[in-house]
Amino acid sequence: MRTAKWCGITCLQLFAAILCIICLGALPRLFKGLQIDLIGFWNTIVFIGGKLLQPWEITYGFRDSRKLFPQIWIHYLETMFVFISAFLLSLLIAYVLVVWVLQRSQSKQRMWNGIFVVLESIPDILIILLSQLLVVIIFQKTGFMPVKLAGIGEERAHLLPIICLTLPTTLLFIKLLLLRFREELEKDYSIFAKSKGLSLRH
């Protein structure tokens, strides 16, 4: 009974969300000059709803209209490639840094903790802007473009988005891994291993 009720509520919420999106898409047609055009608004809602029932016929663009499918899957795969690459790279970097930091002395660990806290306080958008600015400065000074800032046509810019996503994610993983590793190091089996002369490398 609860499952059926939950499914009903979820379907109702989904229908309401789709209806709101359709109404927002048709909102510019509601106004015709200084007057309200309810008939045009309703016709636009019906038109958009009909297009959603035939997603393979949806097009985008003004002069050179293109079909949304399968073009959207190309951009989806590119986006997922950037996300997954940034995730795996940040996880690898965070793991290596955490293991390296935990092998340092207590004073150096505190120093690195302070550095990580300062880096975490920098807004993500500022990191993105600074990384782009750094690429532009390098190009102005040397004439060498280390990474592409943007892609035109068939060109794709993957490296800079991966770097921009990797930096804040790495700091998050470092924080989580440090907390987790230190909890493990305080457990009985870790203390017993230390008493036997085993280091963190073991």
UniProtKB/TrEMBL annotation:
The keyword Cell membrane applies. The keyword Ribonucleoprotein does not apply. It comes from the Bacteria. It comes from Bacillus cereus. GO terms for cellular component: plasma membrane. InterPro entries: MetI-like_sf. This is Peptide ABC transporter permease. Keywords: Cell membrane, Membrane, Transmembrane, Transmembrane helix, Transport. It is found in: Cell membrane. It is a multi-pass membrane protein. The chain crosses the membrane at residues 6-27, 73-102, 114-139, 159-178.
